[in-house]
Amino acid sequence: MKVAVAGCCHGALDKMYETLELLQRRHNVRPDLLLCCGDFQAVRNEADLRCMAVPAKYRHMQTFYRYYSGEKKAPVLTVFIGGNHEASNHLQELPYGGWVAPNIYYLGYAGVVRFRGVRIGGISGIFKSHDYRKGHFECPPYNQQTIRSAYHVRNIEVFKLKQLKRPMDIFMSHDWPRSIYHYGNKKQLLKMKSFFRQEVESNTLGSPAASELLQHLKPTYWFSAHLHVKFAAFMQHETNSKEELPKATKFLALDKCLPHRDFLQIIEVEHDPNAGDSLEYDAEWIAVLKATNSLVNVTQSSWNMPEKNGLHAKWDYSATEEAIKEVLEELNHNLTIPCNFTLTAACYDPSKPQKNVEPVHTINPQTTEFCAQFGLTDINDRIQQAKEEGSGRGEYEAEEEEEEMDSTGSAEEPSEYSTDNSGLSSINPDEIMLDEEGGDEDLSTCSVDPSPDHPPEFSTSFSDIRIMPDSMAVSSDDAMDSNNEELDKCGASRQGEEKSSTERPLKRISGDENGNSGVKKIKRRNQAIYAAEDEEKTD
């Protein structure tokens, strides 16, 4: 089975699907499935645009609304996860996943599905330690804090995924698993993205939660996006026992979707030839959702998941074979996901702009049906009940920060990830330091392969698509010769992390402020990303 994988889509669905059609016409290659690793931007109307955490000048309607209205239909089954630039109000309607348009399926906050026997999982959003242990309390209309916290990964999703025992074929996350850069051509990555060096050397680039899932799930493939650079790695997992067979994960980060960019990857995946062409529920995942339903939290209160520490009567919520069998019986062994897409908001009409429409909190019929079928809590219904009772989402008491800034949490906030410095750094986690000579041009496109000794097979006619080589193993000296040394540095860096955090520059430093023209600028990663996109449009 041929699977196409895309990075940050940024709403450019027409471009993405046109590229796939071009691939078919020129090379007779037609993918059976398209996966998108976040920043999909399922924007239906002007109200959705106001729920996207980007500066106002970058809020463009793009083309998703045409697929939502039925004017167009996705030519290939598309499955995606959320990123950090989404219409959060729209995706929030489907916390357990669902159709955002005909033939376009969202995996939810976290989810697992099957297609032709291939097991596909994913987790939406990005990691921020200050929101990680909170419940999903946000709902539109959002304020300056909740418009961002709405897409932050929560520990309950990671906990649910860690209950899975059966093998995973493909997994998606928006941000990279922390430390994955040690298993690829790190030297080339830093050559292309020199401003990653500090985070790589301190081992703080990427998500510690995703790294934990990588170690637990050990999928055959792991795909990510977010950083707008193509990077491949090969991670050999340690076995827990002599009887356990060795497992390895082929990791690939994708570039963003822009014209003349190498943003699509085609891989060949073994599948069940006897399986149907419908997207299916995963019985084990449904059983885990049922088992963990009592853990649903819709408050801002921070809390830890159950663990074997003497404080919890139960800590193992994995699905038993009996529980999985019950799910199959409930569905009469028909796991096909119903095509029950429903319009829940007015669609954008270019001839009748409505710039002042306020976003509203909506209960999606798909979620209502799903929860009723499996006896689950409708998170949005619970949020509305809490609001009506006067004990739901409260406003933050702290002063609202500027629009382009993310809150950084508190240095005293407890965290189960000791290497996370988002609460310690004086620099906004969404900001990165750019070399003055490189400027923003370096963010437009980069590609780092697993090894220069194993070059990929480029399309002979256009550069938007790359066919994955049979092996992504990292074998070059450049890729691996300094790994042990760098890992040692990371350990030393973690020990001195608290000390070094006080020596970092202030949040905002102008190149010519106080006459210091030689000081490097600090720019938001997201602003640089969108600036590069603007440059493409003017070319």
TrEMBL record:
Its main location: nucleus. Residues 235-380 form the Lariat debranching enzyme C-terminal domain. SMART domains: DBR1. Pfam families: DBR1, Metallophos. Keywords: Hydrolase, Iron, Manganese, Metal-binding, mRNA processing, Nucleus, Zinc. Residues 386-396, 486-511 have a biased composition (Basic and acidic residues). The keyword Iron applies. Its cofactor is Fe(2+); Zn(2+); Mn(2+). One of its GO terms (cellular component) is nucleus. Residues 397-406, 432-443 have a biased composition (Acidic residues). GO terms for molecular function: metal ion binding; RNA lariat debranching enzyme activity. Residues 386-539 are annotated as: Disordered. GO terms for biological process: mRNA splicing, via spliceosome. It is found in: Nucleus. Residues 416-428 have a biased composition (Polar residues). It comes from the Eukaryota. Belongs to the lariat debranching enzyme family. This is DBR1 enzyme. It comes from Xiphorhynchus elegans (elegant woodcreeper).
